[in-house]
């Protein structure tokens, strides 16, 4: 019996009325989402096949974020052994599909307020895993393995490997010294939904951790799928910083240092993202992310150019591009 048929059988036991299913979306993992049409209403069914996926973190984090006042899907029914969830529907309108120069300030303002709520709700009792040095390094190593090795077909020499090792060490040190809060890990325009009330709706939060306070801000404003002028980006980051300070979050009192932390966090994230996009293509056969690589590389090189400690890595990136 295929997964969709299993899902329909389970839904028949929890949805009291006749329903039909349409595809809502698939993501970069093994999860799939279906829209459940029940009369004039819709719900969302998540299919997260074990053993590749585990629904429990989604259910746990959804509860934490709902309690914090963040607009996330409510879990209506669950079948964790089979990997099925029935959720409330936050609609079709992603930030990516709705953002314009005219509404960006307002929509991003809402997203920052939701982010601050999430960060303020950070609990100390180890309720989420730490974004520690080991996890940061595992993410960074995706770059030499999948982007350099598989995508570019390059083997790094001793000197190049030394540059990578030194850069990764600098980045991890910076990230771990930043204030640690709840981190969504993919807080960007494809996972934020424009909603009539309590905007935005927030999706794809199951990998949340306790990590650097600038991480989700980087995901939001140095988004792999949409680009803004640097002056706008700086203005929005300043507005977040001011609001976060006012809310009592432990942001650096010096905006210059906060912005450096934001940029260095971005370097870590974009190194990882290049590795992930390469892996999605070469391992999983998903080529849709290849078109997003140039913007990610642009973010990465622009940030490295501004800091003398990161310029050896910038030179390495430019050498690698010559053979790309």
TrEMBL record:
Signal peptide: none annotated. The keyword Nucleotide-binding applies. It comes from the Bacteria. The keyword Nucleotide-binding applies. Keywords: ATP-binding, Nucleotide-binding. Residues 21-245 form the Aminoglycoside phosphotransferase domain. This is Phosphotransferase. It comes from Methylophilus aquaticus.
